[in-house]
Amino acid sequence: MELVIALLAGLLGVVTAGFMARFVLKQPQGSKAVRDISNAIKEGALAFLGREYRILAVFVIAVTLILGFIPLLGWWVGLSFIFGAICSGLAGFIGMSIAIRSNSRTAAAVQKGLNHGLKVSFRAGAVMGMSVVGIGILGLTALYFAFNGHADFIHIIPGFGFGASSVAIFARVGGGIYTKAADTGADIVGKVEENIPEDDARNAAVIADFVGDNVGDVAGMGADLFESYVSSIIATTALATIAVMSPVLDQALVPSQAAGWFLPLMVAAGGIVASIIGIFFIRVGEKLEMTALLNALRRGTVVSSVLAAGLAYLAVWWLGADIKIFWAIIIGLVTGVLIGESTNFFTSYVYKPTLKIAEASQTGAGTNIIAGFGNGLLSTVPPILFIVIAVIAAYHLADVYGVAIAGVGMLSTLGIQDATDAYGPVADNAGGIVEMSGLPKEIRERTDALDSLGNTTAATGKGFAIGAAGLTSLALLFAYSEAVGITTQGISLLEPAVLAGLFLGALLPAVFCALTMDAVGKTSFSIVNEVRRQFREITGLMEGTAKPEYAKCVDICTKDSIKKMLLPGIITILSPVVVGLVLGPVALGGFLGGAIATGLVLAISFANAGGSWDNAKKWIETGAFGGKGSPAHKAAVVGDTVGDPMKDTSGPSLNIMIKLISIISLVLAPIFASFSGLL
Asked: Rounded to an integer, what distance in angstroms lies between the CA atom of residue 373 and that of residue 38?
């Protein structure tokens, strides 16, 4: 019965995504100029995704074969892996395919009014959100139906998360390199050197910039949250034996192991229903006020959270689980909301931290960067404290199973959380299309308001994703420890193997960030030089009598980002394998702990610094400190350029990195448990 309920909830999520897509596609696309720009974006995005998926297909097939031929794993794990990869790729493709078709429709919708523009763009984002949760639940439920009762069930299911994570790391890194290289090149040459408006049609990099918003912040973020969603459920399932009889609490938390398996699915199913209802509560008036727009989205997420809590209680009651598990779920749900609000405080120009960065821009780019980076570092305090409190409280309530299901609770409203995140790139694209097509100033003001809201929701979404990554990774670490038989008894934190693993784990996020930042820098260098060349060599381009060669920048970004995404992804996949085989399972446990801790701090600081730099620039563009074209604005553009790869490439990719190394460790746990390493 529980699997049927989960199956129906997954189908409801997919049907809702179809309903939202149908609504968006029925909207008018606007003038020919608007349609032409949108078609160019669509063509570039699909070309990138097609090329990226072809490379990923080779990788996925190769890993499937490797997993299949390993005796302790076998072909069922390989099948689970390839199924997870397909589901993740499908969710990202569906979300992005609607996003690239909704930007022109949003540009047309804002001409009717701000609320209609928000409705169209948000429902486009909801296609991504509901596709992620719907396909995620359907995929896991299908595996539960197929393998429930199988002797190796608990070893087969993690393969699904491994497949999803493998696609996510490449999608996030590749898309992040693409979008930030194009954005950086467009800003440096356009805003700073040529002093032309953002999204000016004369800038050769603007189409590539719009494409990047979709491949990075829609397809990439969707893949990121998809694997968080399924991995949190998988980790909880793997810890079901603890729930049957907790050694810490000396009591049973669930009546049977099957109840421990099905409970996270039921909680997630309730979250889908709650998210769907919350989406319909989002509406706004016609005043261009950031507080009104933020409150509109906040109303939807609060309604979803309250409903999800009520449905989680019903799930706990239905399965006869201990009420302590319900409170662990609530802790996760509340922690997710608090982390989102903390991110909003440190990144929105409604609040002081970002306003101070804008103020610092008056004395140049140096003070702007100092203020922004300091803000990013300070912003790590609340979310880390929230995660620590959540882990301790959930552990005392329901052992490590409580920590795992707290992560499920946090992600239960992912449908609406991902919708608010994916909405941002749609609104950003719409604003650029409005400017490029020469629509009236008042229309651009409406899209600017939606775009500014999108920047804030994107930052909030990244904060939520980071928090979810933290709890999910810790739950996977607990599951790995159980799988290889590591207990607190008899193992000292001062053991050389633990310390070696800890330092190596702490090193990995730094190397990962260096590689991804360097990739953005080198690709940006190529874009800047290409845009400069076109301004220099194309007669009449600056005067507006000639058109730039947009395809050149799109091609550069596509080739470079796909080539440069491979090394960070391969290092991430191989590092836990090498540590586990060479230093042993205990060292790998330390490695995971070091990587999770360092990765969380870097991810939060990078994401929030970048978000606050971006919104400080937006605040100045509203007219503060001299407005667009002023010295303060140019300084803020430099800060935003520095922050772009931090918040949209390296920072969010760290989420996937720490989850990927954790799920790989869990999948390969039977191998690591069979020997103590080569050294």
From this structure: 35
3-state secondary structure (DSSP) of residue 251: strand
Q: How far apart are CA 421 and CA 338, in angstroms?
A: 16
Q: Which residues of 352-378 are buried (b: 16+ CB within 10 A; e: fewer)?
A: ebbbbbbbbbbeebebbbebbbbbbee
Select from 86, 89, 108, 106 the least CA-distant residue to 49. Answer: 89
Give pLDDT, residue 390: 93
- pLDDT score of 305: 87
Asked if 75 and 151 count as a contact pair (C-beta separation under 8 A), the reply is no
Question: What crossing angle do the helices spanning 631-645 and 352-360 adopt, rounded to 10°?
Answer: 120
Mean pLDDT of 560-579: 90
Spell out the domain ranges in the chain.
2-672
Dump pLDDT digits (tens) for 649-662: 888 888 888 988 99
For the CA atoms of 337, 594, 564, 665, the dihedral, rounded to the nearest 10 degrees, stands at -90
Structure confidence at residue 327 (pLDDT): 95
> DSSP 3-state assignment of 425?
helix
**Two tokens at 395?**
């552990």
The model's pLDDT over 225-257, given as tens digits with 9 standing for 90+, comes to 888 889 889 888 888 888 888 887 888 888 888
- Spatial CB neighbours of 310, under 8 Å, sequence gap ≥ 6: none
Under the banding of pLDDT at 50, 70 and 90, the label for residue 311 is very high
Q: What is the rounded CA–CA span in Å between residue 633 and residue 358?
A: 9
With 70 as the cut, is the pLDDT of residue 291 above it? no
Instruction: Centre a 10 Å sphere on the Cβ of residue 469 and count the other Cβ atoms it contains.
Output: 30
CA end-to-end distance (rounded Å), the chain: 49
SS3 of 193-211: the string is HCCCCCCCCCCCCHHHHHH
- Angle at which helix 651-667 crosses helix 566-583, to 10 degrees, equals 40
**Given 3-state DSSP classes, what are the helix, strand and coil percentages for the chain, each rounded to the nearest 5?**
85, 0, 15
pLDDT tier, 217 (very low <50, low <70, confident <90, very high otherwise): confident
Give the contacts of 22 (CB within 8 A, at least 6 positions apart).
none
pLDDT tens digit sequence for 73-90: 888 888 999 999 999 889
Residue labelled with tokens 């869990």: 666
Write the CA distances from 582 to 280, 573, 593, 670, 675, integer angstroms. 53, 15, 17, 15, 10
The predicted structure's pLDDT at residue 379: 94
| Percent of residues, the chain, with pLDDT higher than 70 | 95
Residue 674's alpha-carbon distances to 392, 485, 584, in angstroms, are 31, 10, 10
Pull the structure tokens for residue 593: 């702990």
At 455 the pLDDT is: 67
Question: What confidence tens digit (pLDDT) does each residue in 99-132 have?
Answer: 889 988 888 888 888 778 888 888 888 898 899 9
35 pLDDT exceeds 90?
Answer: no
The owner of tokens 């803000």 is: 375
Determine the 3-state secondary structure of 262 from DSSP: helix
Q: Which residues of 167-206 are buried (b: 16+ CB within 10 A; e: fewer)?
A: bbbbbbbbbbbbbbbbbbbbbbbbbeeeebbbbbbbbbbb
Question: Alpha carbon of 125 to those of 14, 41, 95, 425, 457: distances in Å?
Answer: 14, 17, 7, 9, 12
Joined tokens for residue 206:
């603007």
Amino acid symbol at 345: F
d(CA 608, CA 356): 14
